[in-house]
Prior knowledge:
The complex is a heterotrimer. Chain A is an all-alpha fold. Helix content of chain A is about 75%, strand content about 0%. Chain A has one domain. Chain A has helices at about 1-30, 35-55, 60-80, 90-110, 135-160, 160-170, 175-180, 185-210, 215-230, 235-255, 260-275, 280-285; strands at about 125-130, 135. In chain A, helix 1 (about 1-30) crosses helix 10, helix 2 runs antiparallel to helix 3 (about 60-80) and helix 5 (about 135-160) crosses helix 6 (about 160-170). The longest helix of chain A has 29 residues, at about 1-30. The longest helix of chain B has 27 residues, at about 210-235. Chain B has a two-stranded antiparallel sheet with strand order 1-2. Chain B has a single domain, classed as Orthogonal Bundle (ABC transporter involved in vitamin B12 uptake, BtuC), CATH 1.10.3470. The interface of A and B includes residues 95, 108 and 262 of A.
Amino acid sequence: MLFQLLIDSFSLGSFYALIALGFSLIFGVTHTFNLAHGELILLSGYLAYVLGKYFSIPFLFTLPICMLALVFVAMLLHQLLRQVKEPFELNSLVVTFGLALVLQNAMLFFFSANYRLIHVPPVPPLELPNLHLFITQTQFILVGLSLLVTGSIYLLWRKTFLGKALRATIQDREAARLAGINVEHMSLMAFILGGMLIGLAGPLYAQREYLHPFGGMEATLIGVIITIFAGVGRIRGILLGGWILGGVESVTVFFLGANWRELVSALVLIMLIVVRPAGVLSKRAKSERWR
Amino acid sequence: MNKPGHPSFLILAVTFALIAWAAFLTGSGIHYRVLGMACFYGALALSWNIFALTGAISLGHAAFFGLGAYGSALFCQYWHWSPYITIFLGGTVGCIYGFLWHLTFRKLRGAAFALATLASVEIPKVTIDNWDRLTSGSLGLVGIARLPPVNLGSITFDVDENLQAQCFFLLMFALVVIYIHFKAMSSKWGWAIRSVREDEIAASTIGVDVPGIRLRALCVSAYLTGLCGAVYAHLMGSIEPALVFSLHFSALPLVLSIFGGRYQALGPFLGALILYPADQLLFHSWFPAGHAAFYGLVMVITILFFPHGIGEWVQQKTKSA
Amino acid sequence: MGSAKDEVCLDLQNIQIHFEQVPVLRDINLSLRENEIVSIIGPNGAGKSTLFNIICGLTRPSGGRVLYHGEDITRWPPHRICHAGIGRTFQIARPFAGMTTLENVIFGFCFGKPKSGKCSLKHKEALQLLDLLQLSHKADLPARELTCSELRRLEAARALATQPKLLLLDEIVAGFSPQVIEQWVELLKTLRDQGLTLLIIDHFLSLTAKVSDRLIALHHGTKIAEGEPEAVLACPEVISAYLGEGRKPYRE
Lengths: 291, 321, 252
């Protein structure tokens, strides 16, 4: 029973890490508090739904389409945010808040408040008979893709010049500029990568949870919680944070029921903001800060 | 040059004209309804703005709204007191939660503060949603007592049934809040609030009790927002957690105030008088579902092009004219 | 006469503070008598502004006490310290940019002491103070339109409006010409004659040497010299801290 909980936490957590990674990248490089993050994920989810239902595109093929679409949307968002004046963090928060409202209502208009789910042809879950554990196909895809993508980003982050340039921009924008890095390109890059991650998260979300227009804020808060926990740009920290949050939520759902889940997330977020506004892990491993 | 907080003559005239036009137009009930609700949302926006005057943007005022609504409705339901008494109790519940905010969030500023307030709405929302025995949980409360008629001498104002009376009631309500908001800009308290907004460190070294000022503004704002929530509950007759704690009631005062002008005495009210009827009379009929996107759009456009709100923009134009 | 002058105004005992394990101030002991003018000098990073922040309540020290007329004000909030009679200016001026010069000063009168009544009644005193600091001609301009020199004077005016008994001046003349510095020397002497005690931080040895009764030199968070201006400025540690090893003492 405990192990089932672990498996559930692991799969949920890996997905949460995926959600948070997109948010963290955009926030770290451009200091944009994107409150519309969750709504964009929903948008991608609805797109996958439409592609599957009306164009009969197999689920796995919708993934790259959604990723591409959301990269495009993210680039539009980037252009919009460039017009925002000081104070940037607070103003971008309000602008994206407004955007979230627009998206929410647009989705309400086009899709109504009915719950939608993407149906993947049912496959019996993988069973480990000795341990009485079940791993569903959904979970498998979720974990597999999440880890694959997170791993790829991690490699990009550590092994490529682009990754180094992004890290430098996160650390100190002015210094990066002086070192010859084109920080405007880095901002664009962050939105492109973020868009990809959002695009991927959408369909994955839609096949395990019901899509409805007001579910976005939850996903945004998850991104915020994990980003604050891990500190900006710390990919392993984000994975860890995702698993921990996934664990906390799974345990809550198990013992208290699904109704209290949002409350627990909110309390975790408040605790994190009050106790460590700069990011929890960043204090502990100071010497390893920008790995 | 206008003293801070004193609206320009043009703005006063426009506001007055809008009210007079709709109030004395012996027209359909819908005009009264829309004007009345516009005054209501104007009061809500002004209540939010009182705290925003200290420089803090709250995204969580729906918490006070919902607590006020539930507070008043539950007191009414269990103790059978008149709504005209319980709405003030509802306001008090909101105020208490505001005090809790101050205790927990006092060191937070800017985006961190906004996020924390956003998250804090979940606490009363989920609690009420699950506390079935007390609050009927997600089913919500129905059959909430409506506002009883008010007798002034020989005239009876049936505030619930008669839309014109309701409109005047809400207008009076808005006027009270306008007055309090005006005081929060122009009295000595108002000056202190302004200094906190401009530079809280400098303010503290010349003797302004910064935490005290923020607490006072927050509690007044929370109380008035709770009061609005309570009035809403008795106007609508039924409420549920998903409704009264919804993002809508956090976002709306934000949009209306930013659009109308956060640092203008009548700014938020003006924002409501312009935007709410536009939404209800125009967009609602075109897009029954999703018309609230209008507010989101206004928010985006305002921040990008009129960061100080329409009110200030108008003032600038009339100054240069 | 002697007893009033000898009374201790401000007493710092063993003040220390760390920022993230880095000690910024170590065991600072300082005593100010009534009506004295004392200057603190020292290279950048010596911890001088931090000391001011501790005195006026913006920062809490990791250890030590601040005594003002015998009372322990270490943990008092900044506004209470202001009401008690300590005023300060900031190294980088912090005016209320959206308000006029006059309004900035009225603020000081209005909030500097508790229960000072309506703000609208403070016009006259504010104008007098602006006169003293030669800012009357800019009274109705928004503060953001003042020049750097005028902003410093506004800082001082606003702090003086709170009717302090002890005034902390943080690098009030940095970057100014000798004539302007002379005007400030005169102003500071006038303030002292009016009964104020002054604690000044400045790089500009030309100001501090002329106006101070005593000089205190800080380096890397510790006091390295204290005494009469000439003595301190001739002290080898002070010279090496400021100018490098083996230099000659500062001469005007």
